[in-house]
């Protein structure tokens, strides 16, 4: 299957989404998790970089997006900040980051993100 890169401004949904939890949207066949972290709406691939669980079914804990499967947590930049199975004082590999499509903004009653 060939994937097509999403580019340009796209409407993700209505403005005023519940900021206390992640949301899912699909743009041109690609699924994204929309989440409000670090004071802004963020758009990540909906696939967790660990085992591909849907990040949009996770939860927000201490301003981080927590994957529902093994509890990895991601900050607003997509950087992984917690891998519970590693325990304390163990460096988290940078490859554990989720891919971030960008930042979303509310305008004219909708939530928009620029891809590309
Ligand atoms: S699938 Fe997300 S932490 Fe394992």
Task: Give a verbal description of the structure.
This protein has 116 residues and is mostly beta strands. It has a single domain (12-115), classed as Rieske [2Fe-2S] iron-sulphur domain (Rieske Iron-sulfur Protein, 3-layer Sandwich), CATH 2.102.10.10. The chain is 0% helix and 44% strand. The chain is built from no helices and 10 strands. The chain has strands at 8-14, 23-27, 30-37, 40-45, 59-61, 64-66, 73-74, 80-82, 100-107, 110-115. The strands form 2 sheets. A 6-stranded antiparallel β-sheet has the order 1-10-9-4-3-2, with no helix packed on it. The protein has a 4-stranded antiparallel β-sheet with strand order 5-6-7-8, with no helix packed on it. Strand 2 and strand 3 (30-37) form a beta hairpin. It is globular. 27% of the residues are buried. FE2/S2 (inorganic) cluster binds at residues 48, 50-51, 53, 67, 69-70, 72.
Secondary structure layout:
Elements lengths: L7 E7 L8 E5 L2 E8 L2 E6 L13 E3 L2 E3 L6 E2 L5 E3 L17 E8 L2 E6 L1
Antiparallel strand pairs: 1-10, 2-3, 3-4, 4-9, 5-6, 6-7, 7-8, 9-10
The structure holds FE2/S2 (inorganic) cluster (FES).
